TrEMBL record:
The protein, known as: Intracellular proteinase I
Organism: Paraglaciecola chathamensis S18K6
Pfam family for this entry, one: RHH_4
InterPro entries found in the cross-reference section: RHH_dom, RHH_sf
Limits of the Ribbon-helix-helix domain: 16-83
Length: 128
């Protein structure tokens, strides 16, 4: 099992730092190449560059009054959730349908249900 992860292309977990301007302030974000690729894919769906996507996520998280003390972690979780939705068949990687057009409320509700089901499925009960 570990071979699947260990023998993957090492370029995927190498980090890269990108600079961007948010509200006139230059900031840097350091992510593994794998996550930069996923962000590019998400942005592509909505006709946005990676910088535009990150800026949009930043502003929308501020509007929602989220406490994002670690914005980079938030971006990684966004990528993981996107890939989870693809794996569950909710989104297609081959479509260029903007994510915002996919019935967000229904997707969030179903995602929460699947998350709870996974936790039940993958939680080990103490053996007697």
């Amino acid at each position: 099992m570990c071979q699947l992860f260990i023998e993957a292309e090492s370029e995927r977990w190498l980090s890269r730092t990108k600079s961007l301007r948010i509200e006139g302030v230059v900031t840097s974000i350091r992510l593994e190449n794998f996550f930069w690729d996923v962000l590019a894919e998400i942005g592509f769906r909505d006709d946005m560059s990676v910088n535009q996507l990150i800026t949009k996520l930043y502003f929308e998280s501020q509007e929602a009054e989220l406490d994002l003390s670690n914005f980079t972690s938030f971006l990684r979780v966004c990528c993981a959730r996107y890939l989870s939705l693809v794996a569950d068949g909710v989104l297609s990687r081959c479509e260029k349908t903007p994510i915002k057009k996919n019935g967000i409320d229904i997707i969030l509700s179903q995602e929460n249900q699947r998350t709870l089901a996974r936790r039940r499925c993958f939680t080990r009960e103490p053996s007697i």
